[in-house]
Amino acid sequence: MALCCIVEDHGDTREGYAEYLMGCGYDVRTVGDSAGFWRSLDYAVPDVILMDLRLPEVDGWTLTRLIREDPRTSRVPVVVISASVRDEDRARAFESGADAFLPKPCGLDEIVREMERLLRRPADKA
Question: Which residues 6+ apart lie within 8 Å of 6 measured at CB?
């Protein structure tokens, strides 16, 4: 069972994603900000990360870049899910190290498909 970390500051959205993913068989950890994400690594490194871009204090672009720089998380797939959908927002997400970008609102099944696609990638492509 893959562990997914959801980094989303809106509680209803975070819990909605979590409930759906648990129903699909994922282990789920939810955090509302970057500090929560780093604390969560004390327990386990996730297999995949769902990342909002508009987070308090440290935004999702910066957090994604820091995730790529940390040896514990550098190869963990990051799926950005954001209402920040301008071309420059999307480009900045990929420049920060995101593996995929889904615009909000998006279907929960679309999120699962993207996560599964990334989790099936060979390790040398991560």
Answer: 14, 17, 18, 21, 28, 29, 30, 31, 49, 50
- Dist CA 83 CA 50 (whole Å): 14
The model's pTM: 0.94
63-111, pLDDT tens digit by residue? 999 999 999 999 999 999 998 889 999 999 999 999 999 998 899 999 9
Assigned domain for 80 exists: yes
CB distance 77 to 118 below 8 Å: yes
DSSP, res 54: -
Q: What is the pLDDT of residues 26-45, one digit of tens each?
A: 999 999 999 999 999 999 99
CATH number at residue 42: 3.40.50.2300
Domain that holds residue 104: 3-120
